[in-house]
Specification:
single chain, alpha+beta, five-stranded antiparallel beta sheet, 14 helices, 24% strand
């Protein structure tokens, strides 16, 4: 059923129209102008309202827009009594402009028309769209992974670098939450930190790990910040990711090199000294120390070359590592000297280890049937932290005594 036009006091409207900023007009039942204010005339490029009095509103629109009025707008106005929307007006000079228009049907067939030129608004919207497009293009070219989520933790955008980083396409990311993209443990962590960031309205920089869709793990630093809506409420979280996997690997390598001997892979002298200092105040006593020295290393270097000598040192490292427990610290503390710290080990137990080493050496034979490797060994035990350095020194002395005895024995048995 067609809605009847509202009853309107025209005198009240005419008074209001005179000072209005919007273009306002009254049309008769034929669509001709009965009245319009100066703003209405100016919007369409006319100097005076009198230029339009008696003329049809149809002269203010081109053919394409008139077809839209006839097929859609006017039928809705007749059915509902009101219509409001946007259209494209035609100025006196032939140019067109976007407008916001409100039509109200009057009793008797007339129409009240309110028009607003929205050229500036459209221009501002276009500028905003252009700026947004520029920002999107800029973000997409940045090699740093960037993402942004809404207040419910749902991804609303990301750049190409982020897609590559987590090995998913934008279609697989946008509209989903962390629970749909990552493991439960990771998702819980991300969601909790996002909630804290939005609640505090503060930037957070946090180191973490990230397992991507293809299973690869990255060490990363998250830079996250809340973003605000025009009303001042928190709209969600925006973030960037710095991949520090290579840096972490380098740090690990540097830490390894600072504590290990490059040739043998054993701990080095610096780490051995640090461990002795640490053990002084520990509770792992008695602590035994074994010292070993490679016999005739210089002779091997001189006759067979340093490569042969290096192989002998590597073989020594293998023998030493195989003879001790995982909790024992085996180190190369000099050119041909090795030392081992054995926590919670008595002198008798240390002696048993030395005997195992000797048996291992006897089983390593060369093509001539003789042992390939010979070690001079000594050990001593510290009952507490005060005696730790003395035990090391005593083990070293016993090692040299063993070496001297072996050299004397070798001279007595030239074969």
């Amino acid at each position: 059923m067609k809605k009847p036009p509202p009853k309107i006091d025209l005198r009240t409207h005419l008074a209001a129209m005179e000072g209005a900023m919007d273009g306002m007009a009254i049309l008769d039942e034929r669509g001709a102008y009965l009245y319009l204010n100066q703003a209405h005339a100016s919007i369409y490029g006319y100097d005076s309202p009198m230029e339009l009095i008696g003329r049809s509103w149809r002269t203010l629109y081109d053919d394409m827009e008139l077809e839209r009025f006839d097929s859609t707008i006017m039928p809705l106005l007749l059915a509902m009594g009101k219509w409001r929307g946007e259209a494209r007006g035609l100025r006196k000079d032939g140019s067109t402009f976007p407008q916001e228009i409100s039509l109200t049907a009057l009793e008797g067939g007339g129409i009240i028309c309110v028009v607003r030129d929205i050229t500036d608004r459209r221009r501002a919207e276009q500028t905003m769209r252009d700026n947004l497009q520029f920002i999107r293009a800029l973000i997409d070219t940045i090699p740093v992974p960037i993402f942004y989520k809404d207040a419910n933790g749902r991804y609303i955008g990301c750049n190409h670098a982020f897609q590559e980083h987590i090995c998913l396409t934008k279609e697989q990311i946008v509209g989903r939450t962390d629970r749909e993209l990552f493991s439960r443990e990771q998702a819980d962590f991300f969601q909790q930190t996002d909630k804290e960031i939005m609640a505090a309205k503060q930037v957070r920089i946090q180191e973490s790990s990230l397992v991507c869709a293809n299973g690869t793990r990255h060490d990363v630093v998250f830079y996250k910040a809340p973003y605000l809506t025009s009303s001042g409420s928190v709209g969600g979280v925006a973030g960037a990711i710095l991949d520090i996997t290579e840096r972490k690997e380098t740090e690990t390598k540097l830490r390894y090199l600072s504590t290990h001997d490059m040739l043998t892979g054993l701990y080095n002298r610096a780490y051995f000294d640090e461990e002795l200092e640490r053990l002084k105040n520990g509770r792992t006593f008695p602590v035994s120390i074994v010292v070993a020295d490679v016999d005739r290393l210089k002779l091997v270097n001189d006759r067979q070359g340093h490569a042969a000598g290096d192989e002998l040192l590597k073989l020594t490292a293998q023998v030493m590592k195989g003879a001790f427990r995982t909790e024992d610290l085996v180190a190369r503390i000099g050119g041909d000297e090795f030392a081992v710290i054995l926590p919670e080990t008595t002198m008798a137990a240390a002696q048993e280890v030395i005997e195992r080493i000797r048996k291992s050496l006897a089983a390593i034979l060369g093509e001539d049937g003789r042992p390939v490797l010979s070690l001079s060994l000594g050990c001593a035990t510290a009952p507490d932290g005060e005696g730790l350095i003395e035990a090391w020194q005593r083990a070293d002395e016993l090692m040299y005594e063993d070496k001297a005895a072996r050299q004397s024995e070798s001279r007595g048995n030239p074969s």
